[in-house]
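Aim 2 progress update. The chain analyzed this quarter is reproduced below.
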Amino acid sequence: MTDASDKLAATRALVTVATQRLVGDTIGVNDPSWCEPSRLPHWSRGHVATHLARNADGMRRLTEWARTGERHEMYASAQVREEEIEAGAGRSGLELQIDLDTSAERLTEGFSALDEADAWEREVELRGGQRLAARLLPVARLTEVVLHHVDLDIGYEVSDIDNETADFVLEWSAHRLGVRDEFPRLQLRSDTGLHTDLGGGGSPRTVTGSSSALLGWLTGRATPDTVRGAGDLVLPGL
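Predicted structure tokens:
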């Protein structure tokens, strides 16, 4: 990728592919299995699916902000976000599937509206206060879809993430996590050629491996032995 427009087109295409795979993989999940624990603490698979759907709606609101210039919060409040996830977690598999599918469609429509308004460079604000150009919303959404697909624990693993997707998500995750005080200084060197640094002061630790393995380790979804140079360092999850 040589410029922002290339990256935007690529990440939008990858979001579509990742969403289709997610929805396709969840077809085989029956109602009792949706109530079983996911890999995220205290969340069932139904919680994860509902979060993904509400995240799509939240990002759709951010596309409205970028398109119109009128501020739209991603979520009404932290409490409302939690209540919506809790309220939706116990639904049937069919209801969850429909929600995943239709919320993703609404977000796709929001992205298309930004094309028409030529508004991708306008600034919006994620939950937590991070401000960014709207053109970064697709990679933020790609990260949500890919990582939470793993969290559902339905057969999709970090190692299944293709190199192109893993590169984008690794770079974005390093950017998001690098501002946390608890992160050590890291130099991540992927076998694909992607290099990204994060963390605070001190001597850097260089960690190498495939982009998917580095992503899994960086986000707490893989153990240190899946990469090279991590030693026994376990990082906080994303």
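DSSP finds eight helices and five strands in the chain. The chain has two domains: 4-156, 177-226. These observations will guide the mutagenesis experiments scheduled for the next reporting period.
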